[in-house]
């Protein structure tokens, strides 16, 4: 299981990277309309540029938009690299081979056959993560197979499938029931009739099962997700195999039209997009994608509605606030803490971290949103919005200033509220953790500011590490072919141990800060 801390660190790294201005790897979006990036199995690749000390390196490269780990997708190409016909053909063949074995239509046909079967013949192979038809049983007889798959179970595929645990690509963190139910109730109270679920399979299935059970709240839902396993459980009009980092529909135009029709139904009235992307993902490509979905929705509007915005819930950690608002200035952050099932640190309970850092960013007016008082949220009469129990109204800032749910403290020198654990540092001239290094990042690591390492070995660069590594690897391959495997293995092990230790310390520091 991917350690929850990895996710936390990835997130913090992006936070610190975005705070320090651009460092690490950035995505470039060429303005040329004729621009088309080479394709990997996950659709168009993204163009990356390595940035160090705030300066872009000149040589740019293409890499996979979806996979952060080269093990999952090893696409790499320098921007100026010319490929032979033979290599292009091989790449195309590879891309085809990587596509799912069944078309979307075939999946639907299987599903229809499956639900016709009597209960005793409905089997699910846990190893292959696949519903089995009777003529396939033989091939899975050595596997762990679950029998008597009920309609109720078919309606909750996120409980049947195991969550993907791939650390860097698409680790799945499923909503705790309480948070998921809160979202469904909120969407229904706000009067939405259609929900575009982008990377929220558990929300999708809860809406779908609520809709069929309770005629009153008949909300429709369409799931867009890269996890192809979900295609076994849904008809074409409720699931599209989709990559949210490049707006790629794996099933081409037909799937894109499903999405378009969904957004544009009723002239775009009554629809909202809810998304919970992987936190290690870069914010900018996501923003570019969401703007494309917004544009698709807008095309269906009549002229006089042109000032309206597509309502959006973007679920993401609170420390991305400035980054998200950079791309969507109308968004604000709700105090509601989103809890997860399979996330030890982010869920409530005895062992879990009490305060989840995950929030909802939205352009739905904050005064329309009621947070559950039974979970401790309360209305601030001055701000006219619901806040966490300990989020106190600061009379100097004239708002409820806490971002993380704890009671913040006003610093008169900084002229703003700061985390309770911070103290005002006369050298830095602002508040910071006690024990921070006052020299700042200049002589230490460019990314995290620590003095004991340089940026190249920073344990904090997880979000862009893969892309960085890709560059390093290419360089290494050229300069350093002779290195013996054993030594390499040993030295890598050693660094990874110390890195892990440092990471742990950093995560600890974050949790206690
Ligand atoms: N909390 C949500 C799940 C969030 S986990 C819920 O309970 O419904 C992130 C989700 O995004 C997963 O479902 C994962 O499959 C999906 N995902 C990851 N990378 C993606 C990509 N590149 N494009 C589309 N979906 C992606
Ligand atoms: Zn790829
Ligand atoms: Zn099997
Ligand atoms: Zn204040
Ligand atoms: Zn201060």
UniProtKB/TrEMBL annotation:
UniProt keyword terms in alphabetical order: Cytoplasm, Metal-binding, Methyltransferase, Nucleus, S-adenosyl-L-methionine, Transferase, Zinc, Zinc-finger
Domain GRF-type, by residue range, is 40-82
Q: Name one GO molecular function term.
A: zinc ion binding
For the keyword Membrane, the answer is: no
Start and end residues of each stretch annotated as Disordered: 465-513
A GO biological process held by the record: positive regulation of translation
GO cellular component terms given for this protein: cytoplasm; nucleolus
Family annotation (Pfam families): N6-adenineMlase, Zn_ribbon_GRF
| Localization, UniProt | Cytoplasm; Nucleus, Nucleolus
Q: Ranges of Basic residues compositional bias?
A: 466-481, 497-506
**Ranges of compositional bias, category Polar residues:** 487-496
The record's comment on protein family reads: Belongs to the ZCCHC4 family.
In its UniProt entry, what is this protein called? rRNA N(6)-adenosine-methyltransferase ZCCHC4
**In which organism is this protein found?**
Propithecus coquereli
Q: What is the lineage of its organism?
A: Eukaryota, Metazoa, Chordata, Craniata, Vertebrata
